[in-house]
Amino acid sequence: GMIAEFPSSTKQVDNWGTEINGTEESKATVTLTSDRQHLLQIVESNDPIDFRHARASCIGPDCLAVSWGMGDGWVVFYRRIRPQKQTKNGRKTQQKSHAGDNVIETGWETVAI
User: Fold this and answer.
1) In angstroms, how far is CA 62 from the centroid of its own chain?
2) Which of 65, 73, 86, 111 is 20 to 30 A away from residue 51, measured at CA?
3) Integer Cα distance of 78 and 40 in angstroms
């Protein structure tokens, strides 16, 4: 799957709800899960999937529980992994996916289902 992380809001407002510091544009960081290929196979197998039932919960800064809306509601636990840089011989040490011109790295490893 793909996980989007949005930065926390740092806006300050006065008692009337007016923003004090102006607006700051913030972008989400998108990373892949280590089981992405397996999830795509499930989607392509025509098993009943209802993404309206997908849910996620942040258990800690580096741990997520995700139900992708598949099967009987099974939950996948992920831990954050730090993307590794390429080795000296040019071989990649982490899976990457190209979406348009952007490179998306694997940032979440499956721990338990």
Assistant:
1) 11
2) 111
3) 17
DSSP code at position 84? P
Q: What is the pLDDT of residues 44-93, one digit of tens each?
A: 887 777 778 889 999 988 999 999 888 777 899 999 998 654 444 545 54
Name the token pair of 49: 């999937």
Q: Where are the beta strands (DSSP E) in 47-101?
A: 55-60, 63-67, 76-80, 96-99
Sign of the Cα torsion 37, 103, 106, 61 reads: negative
AA letter at 2 = M
Q: Given CA atoms 99, 103, 107, 113 in this order, what sign does their dihedral have?
A: positive
Predicted TM-score of the model (pTM): 0.66
Of the spans 15-19, 50-54, 95-99, which averages the highest pLDDT? Answer: 50-54
Which tokens is 15 given?
């008692």
The two tokens of residue 108 are 């979440």
Question: CA-to-CA distance for 57 and 74, rounded, in angstroms?
Answer: 14
